[in-house]
Amino acid sequence: MTTSLIELSYLLAGVTFIVALKWLSSPKTARTGNRIGAVGMFVAIIATLFHQGVLRFEYIIAGILIGAVIGTVAARKAPMTAMPQMVAVFNGVGGGASLLVAWAEYWVLAPGKHSLDVPISIAFTVFIGAITFSGSMMAYAKLQELVSGRPIVYRFQQPGNIALMVVCLLLGIYLVWQAPAGPAMIPFYVLMVLSLVLGVTFILPIGGADMPVLIALLNAFSGLAGAGAGFILHNHVLIVAGALVGSSGVLLTQIMCWAMNRPVSNVLFGTFGATVQVTGAAAGKTAQAIQADEAATLLAYAQRVVIVPGYGLAVSRAQNETRDLMKALEERGVEVKFAIHPVAGRMPGHMNVLLAEADIPYDKLVDMEVINPELERTDVAVVLGANDVVNPAARSDTGSPLYGMPIIDVDKAAHVIVIKRSLAPGFAGVDNDLFYMPKTRMFFADGRDALVKILQELKNV
Amino acid sequence: MAELLFALNIFILATFVGFEVISKVPRLLHTPLMSGSNAISGVSIIGAILIAGAVGDPGRTILGFFAVILGAINVFGGFVVTDRMLQMFKRQPGDDTRR
Q1: What is the pTM of this model?
Q2: B53–A231: do the CB atoms touch at under 8 Å?
Q3: Which position among A49, A177, A248, B58 has the lowest Cβ density within 10 Å, counted as fewest Cβ atoms?
Q4: Would you say residue A100 has pLDDT above 50?
């Protein structure tokens, strides 16, 4: 009887997870959906406590309390600008939990008493869980700039990674083959350590601007690790949840890659942006600078303004000043919209979260495809900390590494103001022709400083 | 092996459901989608609880204990941070009152 009730609770939890994801399709229902998912999780956890194998509670309660405090405090305190790191860490601990589950199950693997699927699932879960854990921590270190955000490359990097992967596969096969005789801990630990190493070396060559793809991929991995734990324990709610998260991660990875017009293999193994190539565009061309008063005048007398935010906005934490600019312009009757490139920032949807935090209504955050036709009718486009996603070379220059990437067509607006600290190339390492166009004015400043100055000058216009 | 095939069945069907549901999530909400689905992947805490609550090998219990901690960080952190983000998206278009 109890077993059926537990199974029913798991079914209910699985349904709430699907509902939670389904209600994410609209900002109106999303928050309720998330809470329904949390309730489902709560039910599943409580039900598990009634499992006949659960005989003591001290470690469970202590563990949940410790984890709940750490998780809740981290989630509440982290600034929105640090969300990519936060998501990376949470991905990592999820993978780590699955890894430990696999480890604990292998520890007590009884000789000859199990079917083949248990050791197969264990080997798989250890591999994926370890990569998710160390990879996410490495991604965290890169995003937090504890290590350089640029791709880190060394000789024989990709062959080395492939060799590591092959060794892991062979070790996995050995563990499965060895399983009927009971656990072989030494090869198991070797597999675990090599997988942890692979998680780090696999992330090293991936650069900062490719982080949206990487975070989505690690999201998928954390789901697969969870599903793997479900296969080990024959627990269906783990399998369902893992599959849901896995598909979400895979889909997001795919969307991010489409948005850059690069196959996922190129993102993962291409060491994109490792070398800075200065193309001919820089030679002999001069960019025209603009001061705050001129920029304010230009904006104040415009009818339609489109602001294109990029990672620079997150770096200078200018989201509140951006909102103030929007309000100041709207008070003058200027229509203001935001053009959001799918890979702007360091994770999928990064810009949306930042701007929403500053109380900018979400109907003003417009996707690239929707805003592009409107740019021809736009008086002033303001590029705020974005670079590669507005580089016209992506449309025209077949030799550019950016060629084929869909961009926001700011060059079609009547005037362009680029707020940027210098003319330095963006992540892709290529020069941006936009900066040298006759209609473009460069405002050389930190994003927030520039906005504060423009806001002051706006009062005098 | 029958158990494995049954489990694979569930896994594959759930994957299709996942693709179907998630393809309808707008780009606006991609970050909450990631953190929310991430919280869901913390469901491996259930496996951790089963291990930490079992009587037997002490080494295994310790592993279970740490797995419960990691799982709880994932679950609590994930749901709380997602809620925090989604609360920022609650304003209706055209509604100009501050929350």
Answers
A1: 0.90
A2: no
A3: B58
A4: yes
